[in-house]
């Protein structure tokens, strides 16, 4: 019994102490979370109020000036590809003048002795034609001049033209596969060492095709340099071509894949894929370009692999060209910067070495300075009228 009384006393005492502690003033209570605005308030009315039409009429702030609309880009209509080389012949004539003039000057000399023929051969070599071809051209010319028996300027010019055109290969197929087939766009991959003019060539080629009435999509798979994608976008915008790009450093193959996919979905005629193709190592290059090609081929055939070569780089460029040709199956060469060199003979050398025709030539930095290559027009420009 005494125990029971003791327990009851302890319970009552506990309750009194507990109650005192709980009701003690100044005790910190957990604060309610601060009120978070759930709707944007405008002058006391919420967006929802406005939508409902129940917002109080408030004096509105004077309307701020509307943001300027994005500048409208006028879509250009570039000239067609055909006949461009003839239009650009003045530029070619200027850079190759020494070559043609020297040859014609030598051939019209009073006496054509061994020294003169040696000079002719040297001139051809200096123009990057390659020693073997230069010797062959010189021998053939020598025989024909002797058979002809005269050295009338027009006749000599005609002979020289014939020999040069023969070396360049008038019958090589220089056509570009740029039309859709089997419900899929033509796919053109543009490869080459950095700085040769790949991105510029992609842009100019898009213009050639648009000028010929084709629809084009550009794939910026040169993800090594962000500026390359920007550059391509500018080219595309000017002619109304779609551009597929990703962030700098993205997988080039994934850009190429998306570009071809979008090209198929939007039913364009041709997809042009710009690549980085840095020449770190041959295996690295092979891995990158091989992967881009394999990935593209999951959706469409790659119709053209165009190797861009800078005509001003001579033997160095030839060496790089060989590496690319070993890594990918090049179907055509684009020789850029022919406006800046007197070494037009590179056309012959590159075709011989790679076994692929020169299909396009770059003759300046202007947007329409890319032309389909025509051997006769080229030689005419070199030799002058
Ligand atoms: N004179 C002349 N310049 C050219 C020609 N083609 C390209 N160029 C110039 O060459 C420079 C390099 O061109 P790009 O297209 O940026 O070269 P790229 O190969 O794409 O270079 P990366 O993007 O660094 O791989 C630019 O200043 C072009 O304007 C040409 O036919 N003639």
From TrEMBL:
Belongs to the GTP-binding SRP family. FtsY subfamily. Residues 357-370 form the SRP54-type proteins GTP-binding domain. The keyword Metal-binding does not apply. Its main location: membrane. GTP binds at residues 192-199, 274-278, 336-339. PANTHER family: SIGNAL RECOGNITION PARTICLE RECEPTOR SUBUNIT ALPHA. InterPro entries: AAA+_ATPase (IPR003593), P-loop_NTPase (IPR027417), Signal_recog_particl_SRP54_hlx (IPR013822), SR_rcpt_FtsY (IPR004390), SRP/SRP_N (IPR036225), SRP54_GTPase_dom (IPR000897), SRP54_N_sf (IPR042101). Keywords: Cell membrane, Cytoplasm, GTP-binding, Hydrolase, Membrane, Nucleotide-binding, Receptor, Transmembrane, Transmembrane helix. Residues 54-63 have a biased composition (Low complexity). It is an enzyme of class 3 (hydrolase). It is found in: Cell membrane; Cytoplasm. PROSITE patterns: SRP54. Involved in targeting and insertion of nascent membrane proteins into the cytoplasmic membrane. Acts as a receptor for the complex formed by the signal recognition particle (SRP) and the ribosome-nascent chain (RNC). It is a peripheral membrane protein. It catalyses: GTP + H2O = GDP + phosphate + H(+). NCBIfam families: ftsY. It comes from the Bacteria. This is Signal recognition particle receptor FtsY. It comes from Actinomadura sediminis. The chain crosses the membrane at residues 6-23. Its EC number is 3.6.5.4. The keyword Transport does not apply. Part of the signal recognition particle protein translocation system, which is composed of SRP and FtsY. Residues 26-81 are annotated as: Disordered.
């Amino acid at each position: 019994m005494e125990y029971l009384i003791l327990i009851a006393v302890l319970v009552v005492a506990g309750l009194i102490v507990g109650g005192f502690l709980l009701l003690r003033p100044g005790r910190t209570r957990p604060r309610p979370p601060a009120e978070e605005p759930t709707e944007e308030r405008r002058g006391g009315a919420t967006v929802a109020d406005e939508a409902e039409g129940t917002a109080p009429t408030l004096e509105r702030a004077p309307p701020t000036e509307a943001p300027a609309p994005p500048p409208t880009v006028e879509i250009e209509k570039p000239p067609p590809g055909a006949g461009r080389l003839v239009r650009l012949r003045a530029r070619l004539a200027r850079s190759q003048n020494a070559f043609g003039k020297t040859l014609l000057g030598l051939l019209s000399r009073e006496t054509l002795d061994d020294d003169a023929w040696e000079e002719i051969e040297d001139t051809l070599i200096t123009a990057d034609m390659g020693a073997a071809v230069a010797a062959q051209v010189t021998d053939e010319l020598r025989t024909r001049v002797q058979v002809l028996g005269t050295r009338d300027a027009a006749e000599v010019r005609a002979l020289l033209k014939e020999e040069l055109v023969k070396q360049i290969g008038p019958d090589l197929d220089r056509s570009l596969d740029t039309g859709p087939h089997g419900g899929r766009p033509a796919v053109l991959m543009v490869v080459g060492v950095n700085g040769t003019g790949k991105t510029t060539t992609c842009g100019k080629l898009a213009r050639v095709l648009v000028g010929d009435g084709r629809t084009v999509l550009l794939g910026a798979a040169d993800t090594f340099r962000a500026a390359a994608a920007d550059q391509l976008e500018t080219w595309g915008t000017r002619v109304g071509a779609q551009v597929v790009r990703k962030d700098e450093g993205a997988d080039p193959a994934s850009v190429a894949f998306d570009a071809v996919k979008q090209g198929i979905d939007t039913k364009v005629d041709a997809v042009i894929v710009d690549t980085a193709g840095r020449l770190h190592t041959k295996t690295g290059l092979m891995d990158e370009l091989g992967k881009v090609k394999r990935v593209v081929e999951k959706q469409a055939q790659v119709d053209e692999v165009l190797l861009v070569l800078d005509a001003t780089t001579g033997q160095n460029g030839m060496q790089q060209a060989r590496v690319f040709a070993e890594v990918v199956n090049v179907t055509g060469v684009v020789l850029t910067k022919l406006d800046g060199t007197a070494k037009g003979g590179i056309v012959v050398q590159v075709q011989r070495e790679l076994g692929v025709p020169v299909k396009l030539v770059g003759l300046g930095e202007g947007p329409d300075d890319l032309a389909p290559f025509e051997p006769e027009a080229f030689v005419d420009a070199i030799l002058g009228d």
